[in-house]
User: Fold Amino acid permease from Secundilactobacillus mixtipabuli.
Amino acid sequence: MEQPNKQPEESPELKKVIGVFGGSNILIGIMIGSGIFYIGSYVLQRAGMSMGLALLAWLIGGLVTLLGSLCFAELGAMNPATGGIYVYLSDAYSPVVGYMFNFQSMIIGGPGSIAAIAIALPLALKSLIPMNSFMVKTSAIVLIIIFTLINYLGVDTGEWVQNLFNVLKVLPLILIIVLGLFWGHYTPNLSLVPHTGTGSTSPVGFIQMVAFAVIASLWAYEGWTNLNAVAGEMKNPQRNLPRALILSVGFTTVVYVLFNLAIYRALPFGQISRSIQHNQLYLGTAVAQSFLGQFGTILVAVAMVLAMISSLNGMILAFARYYYAAAKDHLLWKSFAHVNSKYRTPDFSLFIQMLISIALVLTRELDELTSLVVFSGAIFNLLSVLAVPVMRRRQPDAPRPYKVWAYPWTVIIATIAFLIILGNNFIDDPVTSILGLVVPAIGAMVYWGFRKYYHADAE
Assistant:
């Protein structure tokens, strides 16, 4: 077994090429995936079929995500190193906590998200191109290989691909929004009163209903933490990281709200209600069909594919940096910290990530992957938000180029939101939630094993 020795000083470093626009596109690409086309149905259903409450849930979800991103902006500007949450948790609590996050990201979070979106992409095309399970999984593996190679060729290459697909996917979304808002024939009822017979109208029941709807919307915002993983490759990260976080979350929130409002303008409430009852959740497709016929169906399919491609590319780019950061701290074999001298990318980390992702494609289904990723990620998002007050107390005089707005309320609200997510997931799927706790616990044992091995070698 190769020993975790230090990197030689002449080892090439990662390139600092990502600006505000590129950083924003990485996050927008990850957040706006296929979920924009169907999660709105879940939000509306959980909001008691009240269009006003559903839009409010989308706004609250965007606000909660923004509050979390502001916390990450302070931490990232304070320590703009490659590795993101891994670095912040190590500084705020202990290196073992940072490594527990890194381990779950290497085994579950990163490869699991990559595998899930790679499987979802061919599944979205099954209505146009008949595919069996073997073809779906083969296509997923090919996609993972292709976009790993793209990101191996340089972070600027991966960023360029991200920018291109983001622009291409946003155009059909904007078309649907414009068609619905300006040519829609219906005036939606935007009152905050739940539809008759959908649940309790007591104050407690109302709050629970809104919270349940917000949780669904937060699934669509998932991925907002990943820009910090490439902070070490950003130009002037102290300034550009906070700007990119705020810009990307703000843009995504506006798109989600307007997209769903366009649906309410374009389709009658009765049709929306019947579609959801019959599990026909892709309401955006219905909007495109109503205006553009069969071309609308094709347009939405293309938009979904572009959305998922940009999400897949952004994940592959960001998640490999966690392996790299751990190896730089001698908590993985030094090969994981290797940087390609020509392309200046963490090549070994990228290819190991690719292999784990392919293994998950072969052994897991889509629903198993997504539920596991959501719960395990929320644990460490919560700890990262709480790292802001911890670091302010521990290092009160440290330079902070950016500080969280409305502190400490920002941290308090974000903390409550993540606790709700964790509680809801644990109740709905306790087995998967327990597995999401077991993997980081194994990571702690791996951490102490590497520490013991490294120090024994040093002696």
